[in-house]
């Protein structure tokens, strides 16, 4: 028997997001401007920051992988993905506390705030992808048909981070100390995902364990598409789709379940 309550919940959620799309867009642009407000070089930081981190990590790890062809592209590819994941998840935990005054004074859809955070970071992702394409051209990386599917990997990454941001925005409201714990996890991401290390160098059982992490698997798929001209296996594709959408659905469910108590908990 069809549960009409669940159907209504989904329709209401989608309708509220659709009606608020212009607010989300405007707030994301404002957040992007505020991010670099007062700095000497302004939005140029969005270009300089990933290049600086890329340069530092390349200097640190290149001696380990000097024999690997196009290691700098491999590294940059991973950094783009881990940057988005880290920024969205970290900022998601402040998406409610930072808007406490608005929540207290206005009746507004609360889901707007974590979604604004996601969209703000998608703009930054776009800048990093443009720089990355420039690197592909600069280092004469040959075009392969598999590269066409790279945007789909980024789309799955955005879905994953959106679901996680909804979960974390709730967790932070109820457990304020969790933000400190999560900062440790995001620091470790660069070591537990294939940003600078190669899956092929790992023992098979250990590699399997690491790739259970959907972020790590999406990163490995992107490496295959961009650098190795390989398509992911059916199992890799199915696992990525199922895990990312499951996290999104779980995030929406948890957020909808707990949002009514946000104001009193803040």
Brief synopsis:
Helices cover 73% and strands 0% of the residues. The longest helix has 27 residues, at 112-138. It has one domain (18-265).
Total beta strand runs: 0
The percentage of residues in β strands lies in: under 5%
Q: Average pLDDT across residues?
A: 83
Overall 3D geometry?
A: globular
Helix content: over 70%
Structural class: mainly alpha
Describe the sheet with the most strands.
none
DSSP summary: helix tally: 12
Question: Ends: how far apart?
Answer: 39 Å
Helix/strand order: HHHHHHHHHHHH
Using only C-alpha atoms, the radius of gyration works out to 20 Å
Query: Number of folding domains?
Result: 1
- Any low-confidence stretches, pLDDT <50, length ≥5? none
Characterization of the model:
This protein has 266 residues and is mainly α. The protein has one domain (18-265). The chain has twelve helices and no strands. The chain has helices at residues 4-19, 21-35, 45-61, 71-92, 100-105, 112-138, 150-174, 178-192, 204-210, 214-228, 234-258, 262-265. Helix 2 (21-35) packs across helix 6 and helix 4 runs antiparallel to helix 8 (178-192). It is globular, with a radius of gyration of 20 Å.
Characteristic key phrases:
mainly alpha; 266 residues; 73% helix; 12 helices
């Amino acid at each position: 028997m069809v549960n009409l309550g669940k159907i209504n919940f989904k329709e209401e959620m989608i309708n509220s997001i659709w009606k608020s799309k212009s607010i989300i867009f405007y707030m994301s642009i404002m957040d992007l401007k505020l991010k670099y407000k007062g700095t000497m070089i302004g939005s140029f930081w969005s270009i300089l920051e990933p290049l600086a981190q890329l340069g530092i990590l390349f200097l640190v790890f290149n001696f380990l992988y000097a024999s690997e062809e196009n290691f700098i592209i491999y590294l940059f590819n991973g950094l783009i993905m881990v940057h988005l994941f880290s920024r969205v998840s970290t900022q998601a935990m402040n998406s409610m506390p930072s808007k406490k005054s608005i929540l207290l004074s206005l009746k507004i859809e609360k889901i707007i705030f974590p979604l604004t955070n996601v969209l703000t970071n998608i703009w930054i992702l776009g800048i990093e992808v443009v720089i990355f394409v420039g690197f592909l051209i600069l280092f004469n990386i040959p075009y392969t048909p598999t590269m066409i599917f790279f945007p789909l990997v980024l789309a799955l990454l955005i879905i994953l981070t959106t679901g996680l941001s909804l979960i974390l925005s709730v967790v932070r409201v109820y457990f304020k100390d969790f933000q400190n714990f999560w900062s440790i996890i995001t620091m470790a991401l660069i070591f537990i995902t294939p940003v600078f290390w190669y899956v092929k160098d790992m023992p098979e059982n250990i590699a399997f364990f690491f790739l259970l992490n959907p972020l790590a698997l999406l990163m490995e798929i992107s490496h295959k598409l961009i650098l190795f001209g390989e398509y992911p296996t059916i199992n890799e594709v199915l696992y990525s789709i199922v895990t990312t959408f499951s996290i999104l659905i779980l995030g929406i469910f948890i957020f909808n379940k707990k949002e009514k108590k946000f104001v009193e908990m803040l």
